[in-house]
Design goal:
alpha/beta; 5-stranded mixed beta sheet; 300 residues; Nucleotidyltransferase, domain 5; 2 domains
Length: 300
Amino acid sequence: MSKLYLGADVGGTKIAFLLRDEKNHTICTKTVAAANTVDSLDAAIHTFLFSSHVGLEQITAMGIGLPGCVDTTGQFVFDIPAYGWKDVNLHEVLFSHYPFPALGANDVNVALIGEQAEGEAQGLRDAVFIAIGTGLGGAVLTNGQIVAGHKGLAGEIGYLVEESDARSHKRFTSDAFGSLESKCSGSGLNQLGKPFGLSAKTLFAEASAGNSYAQILLEEFLNRIAVTAANCASLLNPEKIIFGGGLSTELPPFMEMLQEKVSALTPISVALCLSALGRDAGAIGACHLAIKAEQMANNS
């Protein structure tokens, strides 16, 4: 019987499911509304498999990308602000209910796993993935391995701060957007554009149409992306910085300009590119995470 790997890319507003065999052939794929409780996530998994005419006993392993902080064992969630999850034992409340091994990981890390396996990071030892969507996240590949950090929290670039944050005595907590995320994400752009009747969805079109407020916000947004990429290049010396996430689909006209800005801001050379897998990076990466779950189970 063919092995089947279930991947789930759980975002702030949707879940992208992908079912593949061991040859990476797609069996079924589906995107559904986000599930913000463990029970509703469990129900969404069962519903997807039922609609795919696949039983739990046919699944070899599962990988799940989650929009928050997951520990290095892939079994415990520290925090998912969008869902209000805090200190959730995934193994106890979800994974132990299934007859197959499963792992969870931060969704941006999972997207980079996808790019490493089948996208822009193939064959690379060092890369950075920057996801610009509802929020802002990062993932780091060093010496061919995803960097987890002390508690699995490496790459949380949304919490990068500016000098002005220190001067104003701001305090950032894990249950809210960080300083950079509040300015350089879909949600951040929505807030910044609100006084001018602009949103993340309309900003780029309005800027192209000559809206001066939109052009100012867009320039600030692109400058922050360039500064972030330059700082990542200086700190980590990756071969590539890969942009993904929903807002990255608006970046193609600006990639040459961003490359020039980054090259001017740091002497550390780095290539900027867009995700080769696009919106599928997370689900594809989750399937590869499922393969890792199987391997770990076989070795235990």
